[in-house]
Design a protein that fits this description.
3-stranded antiparallel sheet; 33% helix; alpha+beta; 2 domains
Length: 215
């Protein structure tokens, strides 16, 4: 039992360390129960944002609900402000979806000002994979906009319910400068799974767009 708990602690600490803005994280346990979670973060994001992303990432990755009251965030360099907003947001233009011989193909077109960027992903036709394919196509279109290759990947994407609302939550893995960050995005599901998957993916990236446009 102790080894199982130690493995769980290592996994949670590993996920926390990948959250945007987090420098390190450590769990304190008592009788195999988590009693405290100490997080050291930089000052690019508010503690509430960091706590929210930790809760969401651990829930998505491990199915474990953390108590936010147990999470304490200490910040480095409190006088440093986050990067300025670029004022640019990527928007959904269109989605095309078709199936053939048990395979699904999703094409996503996004736009920024007057420019459009299109990408397609194909794979097995089931609900969960359609969400993943749609998010993957969205990230490929975003990479076209950013003029980069193979830095954005779908870590996980899930439909869930919160306070009577249907949501889609996506964890996007960003590989940049020899390190990985997890970017989280959410969108209300108003009855269209694929549109929600695109909007959640855009939400994850639009939060960090200034990092790319100011680099």
């Amino acid at each position: 039992m102790a080894s199982e708990n130690e493995d769980k602690v290592r996994k949670i600490e590993g996920i926390i360390s990948q959250i945007q803005g987090v420098v390190s994280g450590r769990l304190v346990c008592e009788d195999d129960k988590i009693i405290e979670i100490h997080v050291l973060a930089d000052s690019t994001r508010s503690p509430k944002q960091v706590v929210r992303d930790i809760e969401s990432a651990v829930l998505i990755k491990l199915g474990i609900e953390l108590d936010r009251k147990q999470i304490s965030v200490a910040q480095l360099e409190p006088g440093v402000a986050p990067p300025p907003s670029s004022g640019i947001r990527l928007l959904l233009k269109s989605i095309n979806y078709k199936t053939e011989n048990g395979q699904a193909t999703v094409n996503v077109v996004i736009s920024s000002e007057d420019a459009q960027f299109s990408a397609t992903a194909a794979g097995q036709n089931n609900r969960q994979n359609r969400l993943r394919l749609t998010a993957s196509a969205t990230l490929s279109a975003i990479e076209q906009y950013l003029k980069v290759d193979n830095i954005l990947f779908v870590g996980d994407i899930q439909g869930t319910a919160l306070y009577g609302c249907e949501l889609v939550i996506v964890a996007v893995c960003l590989h940049l400068d020899n390190r990985e960050e997890i970017l989280l995005g959410t969108a209300l599901n108003r009855g269209d799974d694929l549109e929600s998957a695109v909007r959640a993916s855009l939400d994850a990236i639009n939060r960090r767009l200034s990092v790319f446009t100011h680099s």
